[in-house]
Write a structure and sequence with these properties.
This protein has 368 residues and is an alpha+beta fold. The chain has 10 helices and 14 strands. It starts with 18 loop residues before the first helix and ends in a 6-residue tail after the last helix. The protein binds 2-oxoglutaric acid (AKG) and fe (ii) ion.
Length: 368
């Protein structure tokens, strides 16, 4: 059966299936390409033992609080690779504005208008949904699609920023994304400095290793899904750059993988906190810190009732930058654990092999 043709309504001109019209078509079962194999399906657990990721208040003024904040950052980075920050300096009205404008684009813009911004390759800017990577039907049948549409913006360096390629609706969309980009850059710098200091490094150490930020902002929209136990909004992955700053609306869905006692990993749902920003360490920070801090594996689950929105701001090195563990963290008793990698090669391998879990960074681990 040609499954592509059996759901004609939601396939756009360039052949990419958008999830939102599919969800709105009132189907009671998801098409087969969205069904996860048994081992990656979300297992719904009763929340008898709620566990929250660490919450760190960045408003320290006296030296004693600064020392304990650095200590909290160190343990959050070691144990989770993720933490919430409050009093982060980003105006709360701007967090509200980007959630509002992002949601308005997805819910109030007609599809014909959205498709003016359609992007057709995974790395390009614009309105997208996960695509089948090949034109080979058999191979396509083996792939699983995410229950998600998104808009990706190239925001920094300024030479990559062209707001004409972003939605015109709602009217403050472009200005909001540009202001949000600038604020997130400042916060990412502040956080990389604190993360460096929490390892006893000079404040600029990790930022120096990353170099000028290549920043992308992805607004993800997860429509309600009729079969949440069979699907994922976004498959499990770690982000490939240096540091990701994420906000969500009030609908739960993001989960982080927490390694537990006895080597048992558990998915923990990240509680939506409207004023907080979630920090996710990404793969290049794991390499730079020689594995002292690990990147955070995460995924998004779906729900049957409410659409969910998140805004992820990625800060990556330039493609030409060589990433390696910093010399300050290497000595005889703690040798380099990762081989050097040119960031562009890392990205290429990610797009070739796919994001599943953390297998890309695992390929760089040196034998001890
Ligand atoms: O929607 C979310 O909360 C996660 C988004 C994400 O992980 C990503 O875009 O890389
Ligand atoms: Fe991610």
């Amino acid at each position: 059966m040609n499954v592509h043709r059996s759901y004609p309504m939601e396939v756009s001109e360039e052949g990419i299936r958008r999830v939102q019209p599919l969800a709105q078509s009132g189907l009671s079962r998801v098409p087969p390409q969205y069904i996860q194999p048994l081992h990656t399906r979300p297992v719904f657990h009763t929340r008898t033992e709620p566990r929250n990721i660490p919450l760190i208040d960045l408003s320290f003024f006296d030296p004693t609080r600064r020392a304990s904040t650095l200590e909290s950052i160190a343990s959050a980075c070691r144990d989770w690779g993720a933490f919430h920050v409050t009093n982060h300096g980003v105006p709360l009205s701007l967090l509200g504005a980007i959630r509002r404008t992002g949601r308005a684009f997805f819910t109030d813009c007609p599809m014909s208008e959205k498709l003016r911004y359609a992007c057709s390759t995974t790395a390009s800017e614009g309105y997208g949904s996960k695509m089948l990577a090949t034109s080979d039907q058999q191979q396509d049948d083996a792939q699983v699609l995410d229950w998600r549409d998104y808009f990706d913006h190239h925001t920094l360096p300024l030479s990559r920023r062209n707001p004409d390629r972003w939605p015109e609706f709602p009217p403050d969309y472009r200005d909001t994304v540009a202001r949000y980009s600038d604020e997130m850059k400042i916060l990412a710098q502040k956080l990389l400095a604190l993360i460096s200091e929490s390892l006893g490094l000079r404040a600029s150490c990790i930022e120096d290793a990353v170099g000028e930020f290549y920043q992308n902002i992805t607004i993800s929209f997860y429509p309600p899904c009729p079969e949440p136990d069979l699907t994922l909004g976004l498959q499990s992955h770690s982000d490939i750059g240096a540091i990701t700053l994420l906000i969500q609306d009030d609908v739960e869905g993001l989960q982080v993988l927490k390694s537990g006692d006895g080597g048992v990993d558990k998915w923990v749902t990240v509680e939506p906190l409207s004023d907080a920003v979630l920090v996710l360490l990404a793969d290049q920070t794991e390499i730079i810190t020689n594995g002292k801090y690990r990147s955070c594996e995460h995924r998004a689950i779906t729900n049957p009732d409410r659409a969910r929105l998140s805004v992820a701001t990625f800060h990556d090195p330039a493609k030409t930058v060589k990433i390696s563990p910093v010399s300050e963290l290497i000595d005889e008793s703690s040798p380099a654990k990762y081989r050097d990698v040119v960031y562009g090669d890392y990205v290429l391998s990610w797009y070739t092999k796919g994001p599943e879990g953390k297998r890309n960074i695992d390929a760089l681990v040196l034998d001890s």
